[in-house]
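Backbone-to-sequence.
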């Protein structure tokens, strides 16, 4: 479905980024079709990469570990995932 929405230009890249849920679906879409990353799909990938890089650079150490732990079961959008990851990375460890 995401592929049809993206290819048909039903939503802009920014709308896809902010509305696609779960976030893992967007990541899988961009990795599954990585051999076809030209034109519009390449622009969407660059948008996603910029969002993730910006969040990772601003977050405390451990961001990537938390992101990978949350990614598979997270039901929200990519921006929500990045916000949740940053918040959980900032929490003190529990004993």
């Amino acid at each position: 479905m995401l592929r049809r929405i993206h290819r048909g230009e039903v939503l802009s890249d920014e709308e896809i980024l902010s509305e696609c849920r779960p976030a893992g679906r967007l990541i899988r879409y961009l990795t599954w079709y990585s051999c076809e990353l030209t034109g519009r799909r390449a622009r969407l990938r660059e948008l996603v990469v910029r969002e993730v890089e910006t969040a990772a650079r601003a977050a405390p150490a451990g961001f990537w570990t938390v992101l990978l732990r949350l990614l598979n079961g997270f039901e929200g959008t990519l921006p929500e995932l990045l916000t949740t990851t940053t918040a959980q990375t900032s929490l003190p460890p529990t004993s």
